[in-house]
Hints:
Largest sheet: 8 strands, parallel, barrel
Radius of gyration: 22 Å
Strand content: 5-15%
Strand order of the largest sheet: 1-2-3-4-5-6-7-8
Bound molecules: 3-methyl-2-oxobutanoic acid
Order of helices and strands: HEHEHHEHEHEHHEHEEHHH
Helix content: 40-55%
Structural class: alpha/beta
Shape: elongated
Number of helices: 12
Amino acid sequence: MRPVTLRTIARIVERGEKFACLTCYDATTARWLERAGVPVLLVGDTAAEMILGLPGTIYAPLDFLITITAAVKRGAPNTLVMADMPFMSYQADDAEGVRNAGRFMTEGLADCVKLEVDRSFAPLVEKMARAGVPVIAHIGCRPQLVKRSGGYSSVGRTAEEAQRLVADAVAMEQAGASMLLIEAAPGEVSKRIVEKTSFPVIGCGAGCACHGQVVVLQDLLGLSNWQPSFARPICMLGEDLINAAGRWIEKVRASDLGEHPYRMADGERADF
Ligand code: KIV
């Protein structure tokens, strides 16, 4: 299998094909997702919720995300791995942001980094692009702003908001972003963005006009307690886990463990 690069994604888009992206937070799952042919994996800051059980994405620790990004890349070496830069790893200071992006690329083995932005982040995106860091600009609903906005909600339902999103997307392309991710927005808005820009656009609850689509893996697999309406489960792996764990409980209770693989060496049992 040839490694998926940003160029591969650009070619998929040129051919008018769509591409899938899923979140992933560990090497084992990454290996299976690569075998399935998912070309792009996002090591999202949703790891804070899905892996660490924290109450929101703003609590995602930087070093933890770098560590699991490298794990995902080791599990899926031929997949494009996108690392999510967590809250306060790039907002306070551009130089610190560029250095942290560099850590994701070198220590985290990431192929590109994702930042939650609007057009005011254009200078930072320019600096990262200049330094050789491919940036995915995440616009629309920005979960890292949750404390300011008071909750997660869709964006771009009014003409003014929709125009602002289109302007953000255009500014990000001009600043040198390699791709766009738009979360929770009406389909007309992403369609307009796709028409007005020429970089690949990934939607997360943003309609079918986008070139790629991403959802949180646990939502798709029926493992989450709650999922957004655009990420309906396509199987109920949680139920399978309950069944498998139940079978293990029964086997343990019944001492039904199969033939034991380890034996004492001949003659040792007597001395023992
Ligand atoms: O962190 C994440 O998982 C994300 C996706 C939901 C787009 O940013």
